[in-house]
Amino acid sequence: MNIFRNIKYAKEEASRMVELIKKPESEVTLEERQRVAKEVAENFAGYINKGFLEYRKSVTEAGEFAVAEWKGQGSIMTDALGREFIDVLGGFGIYSAGIRHPKIVAAVKAQLDRSPQYSQEMLDPLRAHLGKVLAHLTPGDLQNMFFINSGTEAIEGAMKLAKFYTGKSGFISTTAGFHGKTLGSLSLMGKSVFRKPLMPLIGNVRHVPFGDADALEQQLAIAEQVGDDIAAFVAEPVQGEAGAVVPPDDYWRRVRQICDKYGVLLIADEVQTGLGRTGKLFGLDNWDVVPDIMALGKALGGGVMPISAFITNPKIWKVMEPNPFMHTSTTGGNPLACAAALAYIDVMIEEDLPAQAAEKGEYVMKALGGLQKKYPHILKDYHGMGLLIGMEFPTDETGYQVASGLFKKKVLTAGTLTNAKAIRIEPALNIPYNLLDEVLNRLEDTFKSI
């Protein structure tokens, strides 16, 4: 289908959807909801990331009307036709405080009434205040930061800062690691299907197995011997997209020592693990390790606004001071995003979300242990930390059957990008126990049906 310019039609369609958004829920008719559910698949097929639809359970498992996301609250997502789903996907980690947490939404609405963006010239108080708050949360002397919009931007900034400070060009990352899909962060990616079609990427990037400190030391020794300068080692404290893979307990302390020995910066990708997800404020807090640079994202915006950051210590940041325009962003750290981040931090501490993640994570892992004993031919393994949990299945097809079965039973979850046999459990950290129990019941029902 070829589309040609039609400004009148574009205006009519924009107005129609805006008016529908503005309507109170009670005034949206069934016919209007059905039209949304019918059109959403057509519009994706015609205009958005063509080919994406065939991977969406919301189309293939939904029947006559696609599952069109409409509203959510806490850990319940409701589609346009009123079908309710228990969310244990958590938007891949953005919903640590749940969907539409009232305190976070209220903060953003209040700031929206004052000013939605900044002038680019006057000093904006929310960005500065968020910097102060985060500086008092982060481990060690991490206190100088830059705000952007997404996790991959945070990694790009961290890589740029590492190269700038060290004067070195190389990086080491881990196999099965995930750091984003822009060209710099993609260079760190640990899976060929995303990298190979776009080669060559950034040069002098090496990969070592996650959790193997000896392999890291060997690579650094070889790099030193042959004259390949390495600026930084980049890794997730717990690998998220690989299926919530937890390293050996001595791994991170050894990594810190090895990086110091070879004069290499340690960049912690805390985009998914940070701000409570693993049962501590930050993933590396589980091992009392302080990185040189930390990347944050996902949960930082409270599930309401996109915001990310890369953070370092004053010694490293000093290299940016002569020219603070070495790194800029038009919308990074905008007032709405900073309001959401400040509100999330307030909620996270008030509700002790890290402690909730630790306690509920243990609860889920214990239940999965029981299910593995009953269904060993289906649930091959499970692992994780806090409420970042991965279930491993013997084949890709089994993993898809479980994800599809859960969707039919109104549970939102998904596979991972670097391990096709893994399905994640990554719900809101404040998800009620009764919903966790219901998810576990539906999970067992799915195993039975398989």
Automatic annotation (TrEMBL):
The keyword Phosphoprotein does not apply. It comes from the Bacteria. It is an enzyme of class 2 (transferase). Keywords: Aminotransferase, Pyridoxal phosphate, Transferase. One of its GO terms (biological process) is putrescine catabolic process. InterPro entries: Aminotrans_3 (IPR005814), Aminotrans_3_PPA_site (IPR049704), Class-III_PLP-dep_AT (IPR050103), PyrdxlP-dep_Trfase (IPR015424), PyrdxlP-dep_Trfase_major (IPR015421), PyrdxlP-dep_Trfase_small (IPR015422). Its cofactor is pyridoxal 5'-phosphate. Its EC number is 2.6.1.82. GO terms for molecular function: identical protein binding; putrescine--2-oxoglutarate transaminase activity; pyridoxal phosphate binding. The keyword Transmembrane helix does not apply. Belongs to the class-III pyridoxal-phosphate-dependent aminotransferase family. PANTHER family: AMINOTRANSFERASE CLASS III (PTHR11986), PUTRESCINE AMINOTRANSFERASE (PTHR11986:SF112). This is Putrescine aminotransferase. It comes from Geovibrio thiophilus.
